[in-house]
Write a structure and sequence with these properties.
Number of domains: 2
Strand content: under 5%
Distance between the termini: 62 Å
Largest sheet: 3 strands, antiparallel
Strand order of the largest sheet: 1-2-3
Number of strands: 3
CATH superfamily of the largest domain: Intergrase catalytic core
Length: about 280
């Protein structure tokens, strides 16, 4: 099955255009299953293998969300195998997806967001915070952003989300200023280290900025608010603040790059929860 896995990874990477991070996640999850099954041929895999695998994951304390992700990866793998006539039936066809508890995303209040932006941020820090919050970019989208993806005149960004889906995201004056200030800083770094790259974000040491760099920065900034936050917290905050200020759900869906509006719908629950909190603070 390892050889088939290699073919499947080529398929989702080349034909479906999935990102390196996504394809590596598929590779890890499916490899985990193949290792569990030992030397079994794909034609010998039955529903019993799948059930035993799920039970093993549960007994090893794997989180329900991780189990759901692993099963989703296997379903894609076996669907591909059936489509290529490597199997006559799919052993996962009758496996029901696990029902996961819906956790409301963590968001910052308007005051907390303002306090974060009022910190003494350097140009690199400021542009990262602005693009995550003002544009709702995913951290992977931010780190892969190129100079030519940004149109300063029309104030919009072309970014490539999950599955390499392209979307246009507008930005305002605050983000425009932060990008302008950062580009001057970036020119200094480009000249200092003799770099030849279109990538927007560069570290002070002349490296292309990684997701881990951004995570560390946002985590550190959150300490001043006494909050555990991540880049995704700012994306959640972006969506919630838009809805709280009357933005249409479908518009927010487009800005976030959600393929299903049901994913965006979760933010309406956040807004309702926050409205209740405000109400009961005033009306004790």
């Amino acid at each position: 099955m390892y050889a088939l896995l290699s073919d499947f990874i080529d398929y989702i990477e080349i034909e479906k255009g999935l990102s390196n991070n996504t394809t590596e996640a598929y590779r890890r999850d499916i490899t985990y299953f193949i290792d569990f099954c030992g030397e079994s041929e794909i034609t010998n895999i039955t529903r019993l293998h799948i059930s035993s695998y799920i039970m093993d994951l549960r007994e090893n304390g794997i989180a329900p969300s991780s189990i759901s992700r692993k099963i989703s990866a296997l379903k894609s793998f076996f669907r591909w195998a059936c489509a290529n006539e490597l199997l006559t039936s799919n052993p996962l066809s009758s496996i029901e997806p696990a029902k996961l508890p819906k956790h409301l995303p963590k968001v910052l209040s308007m005051n907390e967001m303002n306090n974060l932006l009022r910190q003494n941020l350097n140009p690199t820090e400021k542009v990262i915070v602005e693009l995550l919050y003002s544009c709702g970019l995913r951290v992977s989208e931010l780190c892969s952003l190129n100079i030519n993806n940004i149109n300063m005149k029309s104030k919009n960004i072309i970014c490539f989300g999950k599955g390499s889906k392209e979307r246009l995201v507008p930005f305002g004056e605050y983000a425009l200023k932060s990008i302008t200030d950062y580009l001057s800083e970036r020119d200094i770094l480009i000249n200092k280290y003799g770099l030849d790259t279109q990538r927007l974000l560069i570290t002070d040491t002349g490296r292309l900025m990684t997701r881990q760099d951004v995570y560390r920065l946002i985590h550190k900034l959150g300490e001043s608010l006494h909050k555990e936050i991540s880049p995704h917290t700012l994306r959640h905050t972006f969506a919630t603040h838009l809805l709280e200020n009357g933005a249409d759900l479908r518009v927010v869906q487009e800005l976030l790059g959600h393929s299903d509006v049901a994913t965006t719908q979760l933010y309406t629950h956040v807004s309702k929860k926050r409205l209740k909190e405000i109400y009961f603070k005033v009306n004790k």
